[in-house]
Amino acid sequence: MSSTLPLFPPSASTVAGDVDALFFFILAVSAFFAVLVSVLILYFTFKFKGKHGEAGADIHGSLTLELIWTGIPFVLAMVMFVWGAQLFFTLAKPPADAMDVFVVGKQWMWKVQHPEGVREINELHVPIGRPVRLTMGSEDVIHDFFIPAFRVKMDVVPGRLTTMWFTATTVGEYHIFCAQYCGTKHSGMIGTVVAMLPEDYEVWLAGGRSTGSAVQNGERLFTELSCITCHKADTSGRGPTLAGVFGSTVQLNDGRKVLADENYLRESIMSPQAKVVQGFQPIMPTFQGLVSEENLLQLIAYVKTLKPAEPAPAPVKK
Amino acid sequence: MSNSTNPVSAAKPHPKLQSHFFSMDQQLEASTLGMWVFLVTEVMFFGGLFMAYIVYRNMYPHAWVEASAELNWKLGGLNTGVLICSSITMALAVRAAMMGNRKQQLINIAITSILGATFLVVKFFEYKAKFEHHLVPGPHFDPSLEQGMQIFFSLYFVMTGIHALHMVIGLGIMAYIFIQAWKGTYDAEYFAPVEVSGLYWHFVDIVWIFLFPLLYLLGAHGA
Amino acid sequence: MKEADVQQEPSYLGAPYGLASWLLTKDHKRIAILYLISITIFFAIGGSFAAMIRAELVTPQGDFLTADLYNKVFTLHGVVMIFFFLIPSIPATLGNFFMPIMIGAKDLAFPRINLLSWYIYVVGATLTLAAVIMGGVDTGWTFYTPYSSVSSTTNVTTAALGVFITGFSSILTGFNFIVTVHRMRAPGMTWFRMPLFVWANYATSLVMILGTPVIAITVLLIAAERALHLGIFDPRIGGDPVLFQHLFWFYSHPAVYIMILPGMGVISELVANVSRKQIFGYSFVAFSSLAIAIIGFLVWGHHMFVTGQSIYAGLVFSIITMLVAVPSAVKTFNWTATMYKGAVVWDSPLFWVLGFMGLFLIGGLTGLFLGAMGLDIHLHDTYFVVAHFHYIMVGGGVMAFLGGLHFYWPKMTGRMYSEPLAKVASMLVFFGFNLTFFPQFIVGYMGMPRRYHSYPAEFQVFNVLSTAGATVLGAGYLMILLYLVYSVVKGPKAPMNPWGATGLEWKIQSPPITHNFHETPVVTEEAYDYLHAPAPTREVTHHE
Fold first, then answer.
1. Would the pLDDT of A2 be above 50?
2. Comparing A99-207 with A214-305, is the CATH topology the same?
C-alpha cells in the first residue's frame, strides 16, 4: 500500500486499464470544457463590466455558432457512447475457458463455492491470469457483487441468476463490497478477493475442506429430489431428457424457441409451467421453497455436465 | 387558434364568469383543455399497470390463460354494456346542458348514475366470488395453482379496483352536477362542468373497454 | 393610471388580512408564499438528516448512529429533499408567483386547484412525517423491491402513501401551468415573446404530468403488496423485482429534469439581466428545454446497466443518455455567449449565475462518465454517483433557486436584502459545496459504495473533507435564511424595478397588487429588450 495519499483504486484486472483509459478520456474532455466555459464567463465578467445603466450590445444569436456547439458536443458524446459500449461488451462476454465459481448473496454475507467443492464465506480466492466467471444468485433481496480493483460489478437478483467475469492480473488482496442497498448490514456485507499465483491457488484449493464439488452435490440432489424419475438418460421418461440440453435451443409447446442457459434451467425448476417443452405435458411440480439458491446452482452445474450418450463403438475385430 | 383575451366588454358579465378570465369562451376553453390534460395523466397512471400486465403476460402466457378462464366473462360483458350505455346517456346529458333543457339533463344524469352504480354492484359480486374461490392473492390464495396466476390476480384486483375507485369518484361528480342541474345552473353559455364531467366519464368507460378483453377474454372459454 | 413604485391600492401581502384569508386564498402569489414557507421547513428537515449523515461519516466505523438509524436517516434525507423540497421548489414558489404575471394574466387558469395542490402537498408531507415519527423508513428513497415490498420492517406503506399523495400536488401544478400558458396569455404575448422562465416551467410541466402518474401507481403497488398482499414484485411468487426499477425510474429520471429545468429558466432571466443584453439564441434555449423534457423520458435504463438487463436495451439507453447532454450544452454555451459584449453588473444576481455555471458544468459533465456503459459498471452505486447528482440538484438546482429567490425577492416582498451579505453567502455556498462534494468523486472512483454506514480506513480523508465542506455549506444556507427574513422586517423598501430588468413583472409595483395589473397589458416588445430597459436603481418613487 502506498504511503502517500491514495487517490485511485488499485488496477488488478485485465480490464481495469481499459476502464481507466475511458475514464481519463472523458475526464480530459470534461476538464477542457469546464475550464473553457469557466474562463470565458469570468473573463467576460471582468472585460465587459458595464457602467451604470448601460446596455449590452444588440446581438441576438448566430446559427453558425449554434450548429458548432451542438455538433461538437454531439460528436464527442457519440465517441464516448461507442467506447463505453465496446467496453461493456467486453465486460459482458466471458471467455469460453473461464473457470466457473458460484456466488450466493444473502443478507448479509457472501457464500462462494468453487467448482471443486471448496467453499468460502466473504472471501474469494482466485488464480491470477485465468478468467473467472461468477454465476450468482440471491436468497432474499437484490445485492451487488463489486470488486473496485477489477472495475467490475453485477447485481445479484432474487428469482434469477446473473453472471460477471474478470481475470485478475496482480497478486494481492482486494475489497469486495455489496453495492446495492439491502438492509441493515449492507455496509457490513463486504469481503476480500485473494488473487494468488496459480501454483499457490492449487495448493490452497487442495488444502481446503471440500464438501463435494458442485457437480457431485448436484448429482446427489438430482436423485434425492426425484428429478431422475422423470428426466431419464433416454427419452422414456415423462419429462424430456436433459442430456445435452444446456446450450441447446429448445422448442416449446407454444411455438417459442428458447436458449437453454442457466436462467432457463433455474426457471424450469422454479416455474416449470412457464416454458413447457414441445410434446410434453405440463405436469412438472415446482420446487419453489424446496431448494435453496445454492442447491439450484449445484443442480445447474450437474445438468451442464450431461452429454448425449456416445454411440456404441464398433466392435473391435480380433 | 383563437385566444379570446379581449378585456371585459361593457355588457354585464355572466354570473359564472370567474374574475381572472376575460370571457366565458376563454373559461370554457381553459376548462376543457384542463380536463384533457388531466386525462393524459390518467392514461399514464393506468399505463404503468398495463405495462406490468404486458411484461408478466409475456413471462407466464399459460398462467395468464388459466387465470383469465376463472373470470366470469358474462358478468364482465354485462358490465361493458352497462358502461357503454352510460356513456351514451352522459353524452345526451351534455347536449341537454348545452341546450339548457333542465328535464333532459336530470333524466340523463340520473340514468348515467344508475348504470354506474349497477356496474359497481356487479363488481361487488364478482369480487365476492373470487374471495370464495381462493383467488385473492395473499396467504389464502389457492397454492395448487400454477406460478404466475397469483400475479394475474394481483393485477386484476389493482386494475379493476382502481377503475372502480374512479367510478365511485365519477358517481360523486354525477351527484354534484345533478344538484347543479336541478338548480338550473347550466345554460348555453355555461355548461363547462357538464362537458368536462362527460369527458371524465367517457375516459373511465374507455379504460374498462381495454380492461375487459385483456382480463376476461384470454381463457379457453367454451372449448 | 401610471405605475409608480408605491400605489394607493394595497399589495397582495396586506389585503385581505388575517390567517383565514391566507389559508383560503385563491391568489397565486399568496399560494407561492405558502409553498415557500413549507418547502423551507422541509429543506431544514432534510438538511438536518444530511448533517447526521456527514457526522457519522467522519469516522470509518459506524459509531455515531446505529446501522438501522443510519439507513433510515439517508432514506428520509432523500425522500424529504426530493419530494418535499426539490420537486416543488421553483415551480411552486417562483413559478406560481411569476408565471401569470410574466404572460400578463391576473392568475393561473385554475386558482382553486392551485390552493388544492398546496393542501395536498401538506397532507402528503404530514403523512410522510408521520412515517418518520412512527419509526422511519429504511429502504432508500428508491424503494427497491423486494426489500421494500417484502423484507423491510419499517413504515414503508405510510411513506409510500405520503409520496403517492404528494405526487398529485405536482400533477396539479403542472396541469395548471400548461393550461395557463396555452389560454391566458395577454394580447400580443406570443409564444416567442414569453420569457424563457415560462418556457422552462412549461417544459417542466410536461414532465410533471406525464411522469408523476407513473410513480404514483408504482408506490401504490408497493403499498398494495405490503398491506394487501397484492404482490407483483415478489420473486417467491414469480414476480420480477427489476420490473419495479423500470417503473420507478421511468418517472424518477424525468423527475431530475423537473428539478433542473426551472432552474435553467431562472438562470436565463438572470444572465440576460446581469449582462443587460438580449439572451443569445432565444429559440435555441427555448427549444432545448422542450428537447430535454422529451428526450429525458427515454433514458431511464441508465440507472439499470448492472441489473442483468439485456445489453441491447442498455445500448439504447446509453446512446440516448449521451444525446440528452447536448441540449444542456447548448444552453450553457448560449448563456456564456450572452455575457459576451454585455454590460455586466456586479450585483448579487451575478454571483448566483457564476456559482450556478461552475457547479452545473461539473454536475452535467460527470453525467457523461455515468452514461458510458462500460465505465458505469465501475461507478454505479458509488459515491461518484452521489457527487454527480448533488452537483446538479444542489449545485445547479438549489443555486438557481437561491438566485431566483434573491432576484425576485424585492418584487415578492417589497424589500431589499443586504447586497454585501448576499455576495458573501453565495461565495460561502459555492466554496462549501465544492468542498463537500468534490472529494466524493474521488472516493467514489476508489470504490466507496453509496449508503455505507461504515467504510474502509483509506476513504476517511475524503469523508472528513466532505463533512468540513458540509459545515461551511450549512453556515451559508443559514446566513441566507437569516438576512432574507431580516429584510422582510427591517429591509429598505424596494422600487418597482431595482435590477433594471425587462419583463411585465418589473413594470408593476413591488409587491404587486392582488390582481397584478390595473389594466391588461398589451404586449408589443420582444423579450429581453435591454436596449430600452431602465437603469437599475434603489430609489423608491411615490405616487402623487
1. no
2. no
Cβ contact, residue pair B55, C218, below 8 Å: no
What backbone torsions phi and psi does residue C272 show, to the nearest 5 degrees? -60, -40
CA distance A168 to chain B (A): 37
Signed CA dihedral, A39, A42, A45, A47: sign only: negative
Cross-chain Cβ contact B41/C187 below 8 Å: no
Its domain, for residue B72, covers 24-216
Nearest chain C residue (CA) to A43? C340
Chain A contact probe: residue of B147, B149, B152 with most A CBs at under 10 A: B147
Among A3-17, A217-231, C302-316, name the one with the lowest average pLDDT: A3-17
What class does CATH assign to A99-207?
Answer: mainly beta
Entry pTM: 0.92
The chain-wide mean pLDDT, for chain C, equals 94
Domain range summary for chain A, segments of one domain joined by + = 13-41+65-93, 99-207, 214-305
Taking CB atoms and an 8 Å limit, are C237 and B26 in contact across chains? no
Report yes or no on B130 lying in a domain.
yes
Q: Which residue of C has its CA nearest to B45?
A: C213
Q: What is the pLDDT of residues B174-213, one digit of tens each?
A: 999 999 999 998 988 899 999 999 999 999 999 999 999 9
Chain B residues within 8 A of C206 when measuring between CB atoms: none
Per the CB < 8 Å rule, is B62 touching A288?
A: no
Chains near B (3 or more Cβ pairs under 8 Å): A, C
Q: Kindly state whether residue B123 falls inside one of the protein's structural domains.
A: yes
Structural domains in chain B (count): 1
Instruction: Assess: ipTM above 0.85.
Output: yes
Give domain status of residue B17, yes or no: no
The pLDDT of residue B220:
61
Interface of C with B in 98-157 (CB under 8 A): 105-111
Which long-range contacts (C-beta less than 8 Å, at least 24 apart) are formed by C431-434?
C431/C469, C431/C472, C432/C469, C432/C470, C432/C471, C432/C472, C432/C473, C432/C474, C432/C475, C432/C476, C433/C359, C433/C394, C433/C395, C433/C399, C433/C469, C433/C473, C434/C359, C434/C469
Distance CA C407, CA C404 (A): 5
Give me the average pLDDT of each 10-residue run along chain B (223 residues).
46 83 91 95 96 94 92 94 97 94 95 97 95 91 89 96 97 96 90 95 97 89 49
Number of CB pairs, chain A paired with chain C, less than 8 A apart = 301
Residue C248 pLDDT > 80: yes
Domain containing residue B203: CATH number: 1.20.120.80
What's the gap in Å between the CA of B20 and the closest CA on chain C?
5
Residue in B130, B121, B111 with CA at minimum distance from that of residue B178: B111
Residue B41 near residue C209 (C-beta atoms within 8 A): yes
Domain A214-305: give its CATH code.
1.10.760.10
Q: Tell which C residues from 428 to 467 touch A, by Cβ distance under 8 Å.
A: 442, 445-447, 449-456, 458, 461
Report yes or no on B223 lying in a domain: no
**Beta strand A109-113 pairing with A152-156:** unpaired
Integer Cα distance of C29 and C33 in angstroms: 6
Please give, rounded to a whole number of angstroms, the shortest distance from the CA of C376 to a CA of chain A.
8
Q: Would the CB atoms of A179 and C362 count as touching at under 8 Å?
A: no
- How confident is the model at residue A317, as a pLDDT? 56
Q: Which member of C325, C372, C454 has the closest CB to residue A73?
A: C325
CATH tag, C25-532 = 1.20.210.10
All structural domains of chain C with their residue ranges: 25-532
Return the percent helix, strand and coil in chain A, to nearest 5.
35, 20, 40
C175, C232, C247 member nearest B37 (Cβ): C175
Question: What is the C-alpha to C-alpha distance for residues B36 and B196, in angstroms, rounded to an integer?
Answer: 8
- Are the Cβ atoms of C146 and A158 closer than 8 angstroms? yes
* C312 close contact with A: CB closer than 8 A: no
